[in-house]
């Protein structure tokens, strides 16, 4: 079973994403803040992390670097959820450890397609 984490301050966005991803037999953990997510990740590294571009309590780049610095058997795929395509932010996030991007708001097909493309490429 694939394990995913959603890091998003909006409870509605977390709930929608979780409902979409669990329908395909994935375990999905939720975190409202980057700090909460890092604590959960240290205990159990997910296969995929979807993080919003502006986490509630930490700079995105610091979060990405912290995840990449963790010792783990597997390297998680990290998808940054953005409300607009910002080439500068995307480049900085990529250098800090992001694997791909997802535009918000997303629907079921957009989320599943992006999720499948990124996880298949990482395999």
UniProtKB/TrEMBL annotation:
InterPro entries given in the database record: Bact_response_regulator, CheY-like_superfamily, Sig_transdc_resp-reg_receiver
Record keywords: Phosphoprotein, Transcription, Transcription regulation
Keyword Phosphoprotein: yes
Record bears the keyword Transcription: yes
Domain Response regulatory: 3-119
SMART domains tied to this protein: REC
Pfam families reported in the protein's UniProt record: Response_reg
Gene Ontology biological process terms in this record: phosphorelay signal transduction system
PROSITE patterns named among the record's database cross-references: RESPONSE_REGULATORY (PS50110)
Superkingdom to which the source organism belongs: Bacteria
Gene3D superfamilies: 3.40.50.2300
UniProt cross-references to PANTHER family, sorted A to Z: RESPONSE REGULATORY DOMAIN-CONTAINING PROTEIN (PTHR44591:SF3), STRESS RESPONSE REGULATOR PROTEIN 1 (PTHR44591)
Protein's UniProt name: Response regulator
Organism, as annotated: Roseitalea porphyridii
């Amino acid at each position: 079973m694939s394990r995913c984490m959603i890091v998003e301050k909006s409870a509605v966005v977390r709930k929608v994403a979780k409902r979409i991803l669990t329908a395909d037999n994935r375990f999905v953990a939720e975190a409202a803040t980057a700090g909460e997510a890092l604590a959960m990740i240290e205990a159990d590294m997910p296969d995929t992390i979807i993080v919003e571009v502006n986490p509630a309590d930490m700079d995105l780049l610091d979060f990405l670097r912290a995840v990449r610095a963790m010792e783990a058997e597997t390297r998680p795929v990290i998808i940054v959820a953005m409300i607009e395509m910002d080439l500068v932010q995307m480049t900085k996030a990529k250098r800090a450890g992001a694997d791909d991007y997802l535009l918000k708001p997303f629907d079921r097909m957009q989320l599943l397609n992006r999720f499948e493309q990124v996880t298949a490429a990482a395999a």
